[in-house]
Amino acid sequence: TDGSSRADAPADGRLRPASRGGLPHHRPPPRRSTGPPRAAGAIRFLETRRAGTEPTAALNDALAFIFAAVDRPKDSITAARAALKLDEMDTGAMVILAGVYASQKRFELAQLVLGNALAIAPEDPVLANQQGLLLMAQGKNQEARGFFKKAAEGRRDYPEAHNNFGASLLSAQNFAEAVEHLELALQYAPDFSEARINLASAYRGMGDFIKARELYLQAMKESPEMAADIEFNLGLLFLDARDTGIDLTEQLDEAKE
Question: What whole-number distance in Å separates Cα of residue 80 and Cα of residue 246?
Fold first, then answer.
């Protein structure tokens, strides 16, 4: 699960507008589609496998992951704990367990579990990213930035880490470095709409309003479900451009259409 810049915000990974940088987004490690029909089928399959064969940590990990994705936290916790009974070094189960606890705002327990995982694999970029998200969920943005940086530096091909670090830099108004990491996120995940929105906001912060507009509009076409966030950022873009003598009214109308 993800964190937020506000201590009382939901752990869904979305930072609310807090700076000239706009609306950064944070995502967890990549996840497969887990819509209700597919998730239900996957759960039935895995539970049948678990009942008919000797249980494994990997099987319980998979169940814990899907249960968490479809908002069944109790079942997710049970499956993750079952995995850890079979393999006490299973950092994947620890990440899932910590994520569920964080979503319940049980931050001390989440930190305890994630801390155990980090003690096992201190250089794991995924764990560093998750630690950043957990800190972000508690409003500890500066500490989170350090872990996002570690995750991004640990794996060049980790788009979530580059997006999270880039979004953190965006909040700190370090726009040029944010652009570098957000473009890297899109290099490895071209359909990563959150990263595209963040990149647009970084260009807006740098005063490149035309480039920002193009990226916002592209994100609007790719992810219409994020229209509210994008329109908010387009409104900020319009105001920033107007302050510098540039009129983007026509482009703003285009976005709303």
Answer: 54
Measuring CA to CA, which residue among 53, 88, 83 is closest to residue 65?
A: 83
Q: In terms of C-beta distances under 8 Å and separation of at least 24 residues, what long-range contacts does 42-48 make, across chains too?
A: 42/66, 43/67
Give phi and psi for 230, each to the nearest 5.
-65, -40
The answer, as to whether pTM is greater than 0.85, is no
DSSP string for residues in 64-126: HHHHHHTT-HHHHHHHHHHHHHH-TT-HHHHHHHHHHHHHTT-HHHHHHHHHHHHHH-TT-HH
Tens digit of each residue's pLDDT (9 = 90 or more) over 241-254: 887 777 666 655 55
DSSP classification of residue 1: -
**Pick from 104, 41, 36: which is nearest to 70 by CA?**
36
Mapping DSSP onto H, E and C, the string for 186-252 reads: HHHCCCCHHHHHHHHHHHHHCCCHHHHHHHHHHHHHHCHHHHHHHHHHHHHHHHHHHHCCCCCHHHH
Mean pLDDT (the chain) is 83
Cα angle vertex 231, ends 229, 235, to 5°?
120
Token pair 């500890």 in the structure block, residue: 140
Residues 156-170 have a mean pLDDT of 96
- Nearest residue to 27 via CA among 146, 126, 172: 126
Both structure tokens of 116: 């155990």
**Is residue 153 scored above 70 in pLDDT?**
yes
DSSP 173: T
Q: Which of 19-33, 154-168, 176-190, 213-227 has the lowest mean pLDDT?
A: 19-33
Task: List, in order, residues 6 or more apart from 8 with CB less than 8 Å away.
Answer: none
